[in-house]
Amino acid sequence: MIEKIKREWFFNVRADILSGIVVALALIPEAIAFSIIAGVDPMVGLYASFCIAIIISFAGGRPAMISAATGAMALLMGPLVRDYGLQYLFAATILTGVFQVLFGVFKIAKLMKFIPRAVMIGFVNSLAILIFMAQVPHFIGISNMTYLFVGITLLIVYILPRYVKAVPAPLIAIIVLTAVAIFGHIHVETVGDLGNITQTLPSFLIPDVPFSFETLAIIFPFSIAMAIVGLLESLLTASILDDATDTDSDKNREARGQGIANFITGFFGGMAGCAMIGQSGINVRSGGRGRLSTFVAGAFLMFLIIVLGDLVVQIPMPVLVGIMIMVCIGTFDWSSFKYVVRAPRTDAIVMVVTVVIVVATHDLSKGVIAGVILSAVFFAAKISHLKINKEQTEKEYKYFVQGQLFFASVDSFIAAFDTSEQNKQISIDFSSARVWDDSAVGAIDKVVLKLKENNNTVSINGLDSASKKLVDKLAIFQNPDANPSGH
Predict the structure, then answer these.
(1) Rounded average pLDDT over 316-344
(2) Does any domain span residue 447?
(3) I need a surface site. Which of 44, 155, 169, 232 has the fewest CB within 10 A?
(4) 426 strand-pairing partners
């Protein structure tokens, strides 16, 4: 037990603490911005980020991943807040947590294997684009000094790690440029310009909503949507960090952990959240590897608000914008331009469609779901090509079937046979084929029964054990008493 705690918490202490501090500073403007998107007070996003990060550091399945209030979730909860108010948001957050815990218990994470690589690349690239787009209002067309601060931040974050490895470059950029702005009396947009920060800890509350089926009917669709989107973003981010750090993670534990975090957050005046690829990227690139980095991010966030609130509001936004732009550059899969050219055309289309839909809708779930469905359609089309060769002798016709026989390939299977033949001995060889579903058996039935109607002798050969079992169970020509519905 002690060894496990050391392995997960205290094997990388200095780097975890420093990276956690950097993430905490980057969380503040994001949490405030997402609160504005959701239509709630900035403290709702900050309390959520604090609670979720602290809880997920213990309950999550992916060490060093940062979870907090996110834009994807904020977009979903906006209509609920607008139509019903803040208390219903807290209730929906609690129910979101319940759903996610159930998803974890029922091991929903195993569905991750059905997300193709093309969709994963599209997901990463679209997130990088969305993170960049979120920074644009904070530096485009504001002032020349803003451009200067962004440029200096980019240079510090890009160049300094080559010479200074003890302290994360983003932390140095924040401290140095904040000091320059304060002591140089330089006027640039600051964190404080985004919204008011109250220097108080979150307190326990019970959502002030009627405990009725009517309330449940209101929050249910929002909660289930947030649970799915939050889990999808968290599990995909966990997979990306697995690759980045060459380590493994427990996806089902992560699902339960996200649920526990959201459930508790709802009782402390926070909005639902999930994993953040941008902040997780900052954490990993700054050296964060253990659970301690996530814990420090949450704890230091609250320390900043309560103790250093007056200083935090003076952090120049261009500095944080510069850091996030570097995260975008590091997150975007630049090899995907080669991928579009070299990959199979269907995979390239899936990746591009995923990116376009996510960027157009600002909804990660729509893009990923569209990508998965499109991949499935392309896959079905690809394997639905059947090859049927016919050999003919004086007494016998032999058909050799090659490929996968299922609902998408039954038409070409049926079309390959001349069912008008009479008084022939016909054999159909499935040695190089596989029968997958009821539609396939129905197609075999249709061909065999029509041939038999014309006094042909028909034999089925070469079925593998699984195909034979399915045909024996469902085929009418094998079992005249079988239910013919659907054939």
Answers:
(1) 84
(2) yes
(3) 155
(4) 397, 458
* 74-100 per-position pLDDT tens digit: 878 878 888 888 899 999 999 999 999
- Model pLDDT, residue 88: 92
Same domain, 151 and 243: yes
Tokens of 448: 């065999």
Give the structural domain span for 187: 2-333
Residue 153 pLDDT exceeds 70: yes
Q: Whole-structure pTM over 0.90, yes or no?
A: no
In a domain, 147, yes or no: yes
Euclidean distance between the first and the last CA atom of the chain, given in angstroms as a whole number: 60
Pairing of strands 67-69, 387-392: unpaired
Beta strands 67-69; 457-461: pairing state:
unpaired
Q: For residue 367, what pLDDT is reported?
A: 83
Q: For residue 415, what is the domain's CATH number?
A: 3.30.750.24
pLDDT on residue 478: 63
State whether 162 and 295 are in the same domain. Answer: yes
Distance CA 336, CA 100 (A): 32
Residue 399 within a domain: yes
Handedness of CA 186, 190, 192, 195 (dihedral sign): positive
Identify whether the C-beta of residue 174 lies closer than 8 Å to the C-beta of residue 319: yes
Both tokens assigned to 30: 């994001």
In 3D space, the residue among 417, 408, 365, 411 whose CA is nearest the CA of residue 389 turns out to be 417
Which amino acid type is present at position 34?
F
The one-letter amino acid at 77: M
- 204-235 per-position pLDDT tens digit: 899 988 989 999 999 998 898 889 888 888 88
What's the chain's length in residues?
487
